[in-house]
What we know:
Layout: E1 14-15, E2 17-22, E3 28-33, E4 36-41, E5 44-51, H1 55-63, E6 65-70, H2 76-84, H3 92-96, E7 100-102, E8 109-111, E9 116-128, E10 131-143, H4 156-159, E11 163-165, E12 170-172
Antiparallel strand pairs: 1-11, 2-3, 2-6, 4-5, 5-10, 6-9, 7-8, 9-10, 11-12
Amino acid sequence: MKKSFGPRTLLYPHPDLIVGTYDRDGRPNAMAAAWGGICSSNPPSVAVSLQKSRHSYAAIMERQAFTISIPSERYVREADYFGIVSGRDVDKFEATGLTPVRSELVDAPYIEEFPVVLECRLLQTVEIGVHTQFIGEILDVKIDESVLDEDGVPDVAKIGPIAYDAMRKEYYGFGKVLEKAFSAGRAFRK
Length: 190
């Protein structure tokens, strides 16, 4: 039997996405956003939902660009910090010691120490309740060579991404490989 929790913002797991922007004064900023994910394969696009009160909201609207950096497990504290303070009040990069890198493709910074980066040009916004969904066309994905396998393909175990549990307010790492995608289900074909 399943217990009802009513309408809630639960998705297991939520990705921990760090959205990079430049504010009006050109200062690099980053914020944690768990409401996001891939939303189109052609053009390759990702969506993140932010409230209008967030410092990053105005920056994305003004610059029409953002990045998404995927933190690894070793940076869980820094990633959490990006979600608990505002760039209006503090320099998050100075506080954490992480390095903002100016994207060559979009007017936004990404985080050097995080192994995966998506550079996005704003395509569209969608108003949804108290959030605005920013849909960004992914112009490039940069992946640190240290997290590639011997075939040059990203290795999730080496990336060590973190996931967020909105109910418990906890971060999790990823476990072992369970099955090969687009193969495991073939056992049910007739």
